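A further point concerns the way the authors explain their paired sequence and structure data. Nothing conveys this as quickly as seeing an actual entry. An entry of this sort, consisting of the sequence and the corresponding backbone structure tokens, reads as follows:
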Amino acid sequence: QRPYVCDYEGCGKGFTRDFHRARHLLTHTGEKPFECTAGGCNEKFGTKSNMKKHIERKHQNQQKQYVCDFEGCNKSFKKHQQLKVHQCHHTNEPPFKCNKEGCGKCFSTPSRLKRHEKIHEGYACKKENCSYIGKTWTELLKHNKVSHTEPIVCSECNKTFKRKDYLKQHQKTHAVEREVCRCPREGCGRTYTTLFNLQSHILSFHEEKKPFSCDYPGCGKVFAMKQSLARHAVVHDPEKRKLNLKAKRSRPKRSLASRLSGYIPPK
């Protein structure tokens, strides 16, 4: 028989002893009532046995050479830093003090002290033959970007750029044979770098079709392509990337080949 039943919602496990039920209940609540008794350690555990295992594994059989010399204390610690932190409870002062002359600020952790000391030391540039020292990490980053960033140079014309993507876009102007889309309409001969631009040209110039109008008050511009209207809409409202796309009149969908050739198949 297991008369002691866990009353946590959805559980209902039974136990032979009330102690076992109480210990099990901690797995639901997440409570850890047993705190490590070793000085400078704040680990907590759900059961006493787990706490004992922790002490045996982490704290026993290890020499503690740093002893608190405050009257009536005598707690010992393995590390000097642990002792310094502990002694703050006696003095009510942060343990880590800045040694810079005229400063004397105190901090609760070594990392905060180290961060503070950088105010006095500064952030030195590590590049060869550079003596720059920034007051902040951000200043050093800006210095490196301005003074030590290698220029991005076009190998064809020696033009320099700030970013690699700018160079990549520029290099297209040096291509021996640029990919072009030539208008197939008789007597035209215009070329475009994208199929989208060619389609827009055929609709607006040859077919004189601009079915998409901007419905922004006072605008009324018309476009051959739906995407062109969407791109234009940002001029009126940069936050709102799309305005309602309004077509003047509906027209049947045509294949790409039909658009480029101008041939309209019979219905």
